[in-house]
Specification:
The complex is a heterodimer. Chain A is an alpha/beta fold. Chain A has helices spanning about 50-55, 80-85, 105-115, 120-135, 150-160, 180-195, 240-250, 250-260, and strands at about 5-15, 20-35, 40-45, 65-70, 70-75, 90, 165-170, 200-205, 215-220, 225-230. Chain B has one domain. Chain B has helices at about 15-45, 55-65, 70-90, 100-135, 140-145, 150-190, 195-205, 205-235, 245-275. The radius of gyration of chain B is 22 Å and the shape is elongated.
Chain lengths: ~260, ~280
């Protein structure tokens, strides 16, 4: 059972705009992402969804506060400690971030070759098995430019899962995919999470579809965070910006569907 | 390791000219500091294991072998022009016999290292910058960080090592081809005595001159690899570069210009210090 969750303690992140004004992305936010569960981070454009992911990965520094990954504060980690913490994560980037000059096989094999002492035969066996699971067998010698959007995402997911991460971060995983492929990708997330048991954090615009996966929903708005223990709980919020968010992103049909549930 | 603090991007545009000047100065200082740390990481990356021999060989092929043709033609043309112009100048004083000495010293101490560096900066430096810039904007460098793979050991330091070995070798080739070009122009076209050309070269070029040229080519290689890869690596943090593909093209141009200017400045400094 995975016991690695994430906790934000008083985290602040702000940028200074061109006109000199300060744009607060996160203002002293406190929340927990429970281990082994799926948390969806939603919010309008520019509200800091991707910034939150970058802060978790320490690809960006917080202005203040602590971000605990399990018991370790990633905001203070340096050198090998930071590396060790990062190996606990798997990330599926918005554009999959596959290496253009490598084949699908080489992309997926990269973390195994670089981070483990497995023999080439073992690497080959594990990579081909993953590609088979993700229905990419037969495409292993193709380059990313020869793949469709959905295949790229699956290859990116295969690469992210190779080291059996404790926490998976998905940054807009279904952007640019058609509804059928979106559905397939979500099913894939649910299946792999069941197999590996990772803590899942999904940043997505694809609402309400992504809510089917969510155990917890976080809505970002002007530096503040609203945490809901379930997608259904959003509709009961009295806060005007949440009601507006529900209206614009989910519409009346989904609201009534939620009420029925 | 570096994090993506975008604050630099959002440096306020102050109305007050003094504040703007101050901000500009601060930006340059921040940039220099960042590039200094980057250089240190780049050098340390050469000693981190496991060494990526395949990437190193790929870069040797790209920077070294790939530049052979352009270096050959630049050297031949430079040597021949030096032969003709040198003959024209020396002939006025009846000193055509010094042509070999003039051509070889000019090439070995000055033009060989400088022109080789400029050619490598234009051909390979721009490609190194664009490659890393594209990897940055398409999140491939972030992906490496997230897999806890050191981008310096994996990607950047092999480029530095390959440049440090390739550029001095290319410079040596430039010198040889250039001197041969000068010989063709001076001896075969202008009728200078072949013995005096060779003898002049042998008697005037000392090991110190060759050493000076070699030191220059090492320093230029370091400058090219540092500036070109560094600009690509930090494409998202460079003020005024913009975003996306446009930022990569802008920063690539900037990298070639900066590395070329640096080569010329360091050429003067090294000559002044070492001669």
């Amino acid at each position: 059972m995975n016991t690695t969750g994430i906790e934000f303690k008083g985290v602040t992140k702000a940028f200074i705009r061109d006109d000199g004004s300060k744009q607060v992305i996160l203002d002293q936010v406190n929340f927990s992402i429970p281990a082994g569960k799926t948390t969806v981070i939603a919010g309008g454009s520019g509200q800091g969804k991707s910034v939150t992911l970058k802060l978790i990965l320490r690809l960006m520094d917080a202005d203040s506060g602590q971000i605990l990954v399990g018991d370790d504060d990633i905001t203070r980690a340096r050198g090998n400690k930071l590396k060790e913490l990062r190996t606990r994560f798997g990330v599926l980037f918005q554009g999959a971030a596959l290496f253009d000059s490598m084949t699908v096989f080489e992309n997926v094999a990269l973390p195994l070759r670089e981070r483990t002492s497995k023999s080439e035969d073992e690497v080959r066996e594990q990579v081909l098995s993953s590609l088979e699971q993700l229905e990419l067998l037969g495409h292993e010698n193709k380059f990313p430019a020869q793949l469709s959007g959905g295949m790229k995402k699956r290859a990116g997911l295969a690469r992210a899962l190779q080291l059996k991460p404790e926490i998976m971060l998905f940054d807009e995983p279904t952007t640019g995919l058609d509804p059928v492929m979106t559905q397939e990708i979500y099913q894939l997330f649910a299946r792999t999470q069941e197999q590996i048991g990772y803590t899942s954090i999904i940043v997505s615009h694809d609402i309400p579809k992504v809510f089917n996966l969510a155990d917890q929903v976080i809505v970002l708005n002007n530096g503040a965070m609203d945490v809901f223990s379930s997608p259904e709980a959003i509709q009961w919020s009295n806060k005007p910006h949440i009601r507006e968010f529900v209206q614009t992103t989910m519409g009346e049909i989904y609201q009534s569907h939620l009420v029925e549930k | 390791m570096f994090t993506h603090n975008d604050d630099y991007y959002f440096m306020p545009k102050q109305q007050n000219p003094i504040s703007r000047l101050g901000n500009c100065g601060l930006s340059i200082l921040i940039d220099l500091g960042r590039m200094g740390c980057y250089l240190l990481q780049m050098i340390l990356g050469c000693f981190r294991t496991p060494f990526r021999f395949s990437e190193f060989m790929r870069q040797m092929n790209f920077i070294g072998v790939g530049s052979l043709v352009v270096i050959f033609f630049t050297a031949a043309s430079t040597g021949m022009v030096l032969g003709l112009q040198g003959y024209y100048s020396l002939h006025k004083f009846g000193a055509e016999g010094m042509l070999g000495s003039a051509v070889s010293l000019t090439l070995i101490m000055e033009l060989g290292p400088v022109l080789t560096a400029l050619m490598v900066a234009g051909r390979a430096g721009s490609a190194m910058c664009a490659e890393l810039g594209i990897m940055r904007i398409s999140e491939q460098l972030d992906a490496l960080d997230c897999m806890a793979i050191d981008p310096f050991r994996y990607l950047i330091s092999p480029k530095l090592l390959a440049a440090l070995i390739s550029v001095p070798l290319l410079t040596a080739l430039f010198d040889v081809v250039g001197i041969a070009g000068g010989y063709v122009a001076g001896v075969h076209l202008m009728g200078v005595n072949p013995g005096s050309y060779i003898d002049g070269m042998q008697s005037s070029v000392t090991s110190h001159d060759v050493w000076l040229g070699t030191v220059k080519s090492f320093v230029f290689a370091l400058l090219i690899a540092w500036i070109c890869t560094g600009r690509g690596y930090f494409v998202h943090l460079i003020r005024g570069a913009g975003f996306g593909a446009r930022s990569v093209s802008k920063v690539t141009t900037q990298a070639v210009v900066l590395s070329s200017i640096s080569v010329l400045i360091f050429d003067y400094l090294l000559t002044a210090i070492l001669i």
